[in-house]
Amino acid sequence: MGKRIAKEVSIAIADAVKLAKAEVIAAYPITPQTHIVEHLSELVANGELDAEYITVESEHSAMSAAIGAVATGARTFTSTAAQGLALMHEMLFIASAMRLPVVMVVANRALSAPISIWNDHSDIMANRDIGWIQVWAENGQEAVDLTIQAFRIAEDKNVMFPIIVNIDGFVLSHVIEPIILPDQEEVDAFLPAFKPKYKLDPRKPITMGPVGVPEIYFEAKKAQDEAFRNTPKVIKRVWKDWAKRFGREYNAVETYRMEDAEVALLIMGSLAETAMTAVDKMRDEGKKVGLVRIRLWRPFPVQEFRRAVSKVPVLAVIDRAMPPGAVNGPVATEVKAALYNAGRKPRVVNFIAGLGGRDVTVEDFEEMAERAAFYRKKRPKELYETIGVRES
Amino acid sequence: MIEVRLHGRGGQGGVTSAELIAISAINQGKYAQAFPSFGPERRGAPVMAFVRISDKRIRTREKVYNPDIVVVLDPSLPTIVNVTDGLKEDGWVILNSAKDEKTLREILGGFKGKLAVVDATKIAIEELGLPITNTTMLGAFLKATGLVDQKYLEEALEHRFGRLADKNKAAMARAIKETKIYA
């Protein structure tokens, strides 16, 4: 069993990549991802991790190099944030459509302008449809666990899709907290070597990524989406195995104190832990409040989600990205689409909170729950509401 | 749960102090969290770092608004930053200063609460040859609050500073001796 240690979450993630024995790391440093790739480059330079560390001139190149590396059958890792993820955008679709299982940690950060290095989810929300599996970590332990699991999930022959582990920039990436790093033998037993069926090899040449003429493009995209929608079977199997080996459970949708809840908060990422504190406080005061978190954001777990919220009258969905001109934030939009044709469903109220590093406090979560409770008897506004914005 | 806010200037090692407190608490079997005031590091500018220590799992990730303990690494900060902002009524202010109690309480706006003072800059210059007070102030923190064992802080210093650990341990030990408590 691994030992409980005090570690900065970014450093622990790099150590997890080392435990997974990544063979290629192609990355460009950007705040707040920097400590992850800095530590990885140290591990490679010190000979502690036998990998090729490719320093590149941009994130577009980082993703291009990662795509090339994984196509040769090398276990490949990268990490980025905000503008870096935006610059990768073009290449992200290539990795998923070509079924190349790159593992990436995104230290979620606001997109400029105004220039912000601080945490929100606008970077990843602009990348919802890239065809990558996307999961969320709420604390350092989950960041480590999900990073190790990501390699096994992505590289499974029934998956073969790239995967993003989202960790909140600064709020999670720069925190020191207790973390259990698994032992090398435990990870070796959990994670088999990457053996893709097809790979780029000069001794056995194949073509990858040829043109998709109108006669085949649509079929290729349909096949891609079907394969993508099948990935949760493997994801759940991997999580079950992880729980058996390490005693820590992971689910596509996680709930907290949802029994008899009259109002539920829904948030993704590490602020869900602050929300838990708020839920505990409100429960102590006799208020029936619960919490739902979507761990598996892509592919979206419609059935599990519907089950989780079928009995609650009001659901307050907290988005951490602005939806310019849209009815709701991206998470609320998704949630409403998932519920529209459901039998029993809650009323949905959408809050936008915590943009560009604005703190979301326990008190803010209490306020959102209170405001949401008000909509048990009244139809919510269709447009989002904001929390923590100075109006004058 | 105990919440600590550290005030320093960029480059003085306030974040390292926060980290070392959290690491020691975790190694002692407690739960702890340390994080900086997120932002670009600017040498010389006032910066903050935060620590939470608890016997139970810590879930909240909001900033520290109502600290139980405030630690100030730089003697010039109390005159330009309201270091007692949000401090709990029975909270500690732990200062690096060569000034006397009366003057300091005046600078803190008539602060009547628990005060611990050490001339950490002097100790750091004598022990380390540098006015970097982060490890010295750990001694004052330890003397005033007793929240972590010296043994675990020393281990954390050894792990962090390697061959420079002994000097830092000496600075911390002197601060434990020389910190004046006004409580």
Describe the structure.
The complex is a heterodimer of chains A (392) and B (183). Helix content of chain A is 39%, strand content 18%. In chain A, helix 12 links the parallel strand 13 and strand 14. Chain B has 183 residues and is α/β, with parallel strands linked by helices. In chain B, 39% of the residues lie in helices and 22% in strands. Chain B is globular. The mean pLDDT of chain B is 96. Chain A: Keywords: Oxidoreductase, Pyruvate. Chain A: InterPro entries: PFOR_II (IPR033412), Pyruvate:ferred/Flavod_OxRd (IPR050722), Pyrv_Fd/Flavodoxin_OxRdtase_N (IPR002880), THDP-binding (IPR029061), Transketo_C/PFOR_II (IPR009014). Chain A: This is Pyruvate ferredoxin oxidoreductase. Chain A: One of its GO terms (molecular function) is oxidoreductase activity, acting on the aldehyde or oxo group of donors.
Poorly predicted runs of chain B are none
- Decide which structural class fits the backbone of chain A: alpha/beta
Q: Fraction of residues of chain A in helices?
A: 25-40%
String of helices and strands of chain B: EHEEEHEHEHHHHE
SSE blueprint:
The complex is a heterodimer of chains A (392) and B (183).
Chain A (H helix, E strand, L loop, with lengths): L3 E5 H11 L4 E4 L6 H12 L6 E4 L3 H13 L4 E5 L1 H16 L5 E6 L13 H4 L7 E4 L3 H16 L7 E6 L7 E5 L3 H7 L26 H13 L1 H16 L6 E4 L6 E4 L4 H14 L4 E6 L1 E3 L3 H8 L4 E6 L10 H10 L7 E6 L9 H12 L11 E2 L6
Parallel strand pairs in A: 2-3, 2-4, 4-5, 5-7, 6-7, 10-11, 10-13, 13-14, 14-15
Antiparallel strand pairs in A: 1-8, 6-12, 9-11
Chain B lengths: L1 E8 L4 H14 L3 E6 L9 E9 L14 E4 L4 H4 L11 E5 L4 H7 L6 E5 L1 H9 L5 H12 L4 H12 L3 H14 L1 E3 L1
Parallel strand pairs in B: 1-4, 4-5, 5-6
Antiparallel strand pairs in B: 1-3, 2-3, 6-7
Helix pairs in contact in B: 1-5, 1-6, 4-7, 5-7, 6-7
In brief:
The complex is a heterodimer of chains A (392) and B (183). With 392 residues, chain A is an alpha/beta fold.
Record keyword descriptors for this entry.
heterodimer; A: 392 residues; alpha/beta; Rossmann fold; 7-stranded mixed β-sheet; 6-stranded mixed β-sheet; 13 helices; 39% helix; B: 183 residues; Pyruvate-ferredoxin Oxidoreductase, domain 3; 7 helices; globular
